[in-house]
Design brief:
four-stranded parallel sheet, DNA-binding, six-stranded parallel sheet, Rossmann fold, 434 Repressor (Amino-terminal Domain), 12 strands, alpha/beta, homodimer
DNA sequence: GAGCGGTTTGGGAGCGCTCCCAAATATTGT
DNA sequence: ACAATATTTGGGAGCGCTCCCAAACCGCTC
């Protein structure tokens, strides 16, 4: 049967305040008293009642990770498991529980918001993968709920951690330019998302810095899925690009399929560069040149920042951009 | 600013008990009072404090889904997303929050157990994918924590919902027998798991019911991964089976790879039958004959049963076995 | 031994809600 | 109009903990 702090106090022959001081590592308890209390705690297997603590402290030690996607999408995009691992590891290390939420239905979203956040079930929320017009951010701002976005957000009040999408995409395209390519296409991410826009911006900057004018026929929007990119690549092939920058590895795999289905060779006929450095990048044939983004570290850092906001060690909005890195493999070819 | 029940009471000109009766849909409130209270609740956006309710009711409205796997395995096996969807949908419909937990490290498991369950953070737990020697079940039994296993468990005290693995496997192998096969191999699931054992038992029953003796050289244990099954199939090929029953679709994909890599044809040289009817079954070439298990429904039913235990509408252990169904596609061939 | 300062300890109060039971009010029957 | 019964309402108490402040204790100095 679950025991209470009062029972531990009785068994240890001290007051409830002393037991509370012991389990919360407060000073001002004699060592032999502290030891005696711990022994009772272990003997009866006492564990503090989460709700009772939460009622007083206004903390639950539970963080939410909200990904406004349908479940199937969540599990089929390898980006999210890696992000979630970064988040989960920090939660474990910092003794927070993680509640993972996913949905694609706006009605469901409002319901979750009201119940989970307004009932003070969560100390704070990490938001990832949301389109720019998602209503959750204005709600969170209005309610003063601690939250962090894994990804950039164009509002100074928002705390976020992102990777250098613009710089990474620029690096990738500059590499293709150094290899001599001039007719470089791109399959973008969804332009409703910051990452989609940023990676397109990097592509633009690289071309314009070499005085190469943009060609709309070489730019096709993708949806971050493999199949979507296969279709997008099919639309690019008649334009005869010699290279393509694809805004995620998952989509690059789809583009590579379309290229092969057209009887063309990678990289001899079309050089391919992706973005992410997911595990699949080194498994495909030929191995994919890509921009490495530290997904797991982004998840970990978002979590640390959120805990900082929750515990008051961080005040005011923070913006962190993590560096990206070009990983050259065989898919882009060489000089 | 978050409002309290007392504030709603003051604004509505009633007592706190009346407000509590209104939000909990108790009778014995005059309709015009009930209406007035609801209007105040909406105006101030009141949401009950989860911890305060929980402290009194001993309920949190939070269920745990525990899958003792590493994160990467969890996300790469298509079984779990479908199960999770079944669980999540019922949680949403029944207004429970779902906390998803995953781990592969025993130390981490004990830590989670102690903190989440013993602190009364969760109303109950659904357990899935655990090996038979996992220590979590004895802990849960000892503590009288409500829990349900998605999968069969050999202990009468345990409430579980499973699919008819024995019957399904038997169906699959009987189908191969009807097609004239006599040299039928099998790649089992892990025999540390009930599902692994049951699907092997179904294979055995089908063969023995036709007076065909078991041949150990035609039985290889797999680990429910595609790569593991590819290696297992390589070990079976020298035995020249004319057919193979593979204990999951994911493994069947691996087996098919090994068959093709050996220059053999499916189903002409070796007929293949899987188990699951995952989405991939109808996408591979040739489309996979398989046993359909209602994964999502299993998740949904496990959740309903757990809620029944939590809310007291179910007392004592329950055991439900959901029917399986043979789905004939091209991989098994025909008469 | 007395006084002072620092440390340790204990018990009341309150966090926001639900439940219980007595009081107040309304309804029905004679 | 009055009595009996049913319905509605309100306020105290407690769920298990943390915090606060006063009391008790200890050690040191004169």
């Amino acid at each position: 049967m679950a025991s209470t702090l009062e029972e531990v106090a009785r068994l240890a022959g001290v007051s409830r305040s002393t037991v509370s001081r012991v389990i919360n590592n407060h000073p001002n308890v004699r060592p032999e008293v502290r030891k005696r209390v711990w022994e009772v705690i272990q003997r009866v297997g006492y564990q503090p009642h989460a709700a009772a603590r939460s009622l007083v402290t206004n903390r639950t030690q539970v963080l939410g990770l909200v990904i406004p996607r349908g479940l199937v999408t969540l599990f089929s995009d390898p980006f999210f498991p890696i992000l979630i691992r970064g988040v989960a590891d920090v939660c474990t290390a910092r003794r927070y529980h993680l509640m993972l939420s996913f949905f694609s239905d706006p009605l469901q979203q409002e319901e979750l918001y009201r119940r989970a956040l307004r009932s003070r079930l969560l100390d704070g929320v990490i938001l990832s993968g949301a389109p720019l017009d998602d209503p959750l951010v204005p709600w969170l701002l209005q309610d003063n709920t601690p939250f962090v976005i894994a990804g950039r957000y164009p509002d100074e009040r928002v705390t976020y951690v992102d990777v250098d999408n613009i710089g990474g995409a620029r690096m990738a395209v500059e590499h293709l330019l150094r290899l001599g390519h001039r007719r470089i296409a791109t399959i973008t991410g969804p332009l409703t998302m910051m990452a989609g826009q940023d990676r397109l911006e990097g592509y633009r900057q690289a071309l314009l810095s070499r005085g190469i004018p943009l060609n709309d026929a070489l730019i096709v929007e993708g949806d971050f899925t493999e199949e979507g990119a296969r279709v997008a690549m099919q639309r690019l092939l008649p334009q005869r690009p010699t290279a393509v920058f694809v805004a995620s590895d998952t989509m690059a795999v789809g583009a590579m399929k379309a290229i092969r289905e057209a009887g063309l060779h990678i990289p001899d006929d079309i050089a391919v560069v992706g973005f992410d450095d997911l595990p699949i990048a080194s498994v495909v044939e030929p191995p994919l040149t890509t921009v490495r983004q530290p997904i797991e570290r982004m998840g970990a850092m978002a979590t640390e920042m959120l805990i900082g906001l929750v515990e008051g060690t961080i005040t005011g909005p923070q913006h962190i951009i993590l560096p990206t890195q070009l990983i050259v493999r065989a898919s882009c070819g060489s000089l």
